[in-house]
Amino acid sequence: MAKLKIVKVGDDVLRKECRPVDKITPRVLTLLDDMAETMRAAGGVGLAAPQVGVLRRIVVIECEEGELIELINPKIIAYSGENEGLEGCLSLPGQWGIVTRPMHVTVRAMNRHGEIVDYTGSDLLARAFCHELDHLDGKLYPDVAERMLSPEEIKEIERD
Ligand code: ZN
After folding, report:
1. pLDDT tens digits, one per residue of 20-66
2. 3-class DSSP assignment, residue 4
3. Spatial CA neighbour of 141 closest among 90, 88, 93
4. What's residue 22's pLDDT?
5. Run of H or E residues at 74
6. pLDDT tens, residue by residue, 60-93
7. How far is the CA of 54 from the centre of ligand 1 (A)?
8. How many angstroms does the Cα of residue 9 sit away from the middle of ligand 1?
9. Which of 70, 132, 153, 158 does the annotation list as catalytic?
10. Domains of the chain (ranges plus CATH)?
11. How far is the CA of 152 from the centre of ligand 1 (A)?
């Protein structure tokens, strides 16, 4: 496994639409492993392939330690409720915003074995699904945020 460099906001790669994966190759599996390692090393709960410079529809999420979710060609197939909360991104270090997302989200994706699996998550996991899938279409959370936090508010959070 290798730790990859995380692309930061301002880089065009974060604004491009990613292409689907049509075959699970050893390269895809290596990318999944490297993305998980990169996410954990950065202390994030999710990472999308464009954040490591790869324009493919691949996402890793780990909201609960040890519960890694790997999503290939993910699609949101159902959602409900509303949940306003704090959101950040490894590609926008030091920034936070208030974003309204669905409370419950179901995603259909391929896993590393090429099987189609549905994943349902609530609260933070639902938020992570929405946030990471947006990356695959070149969207960043400030695009959909109610507002971004001020430097004073960020100081408050980082003190906790
Ligand atoms: Zn992000």
Report:
1. 999 999 999 999 999 999 999 999 999 999 999 999 999 999 999 89
2. coil
3. 88
4. 94
5. strand 69-80
6. 999 998 999 999 999 999 999 999 999 999 999 9
7. 14
8. 10
9. 132
10. 12-159 (3.90.45.10)
11. 22
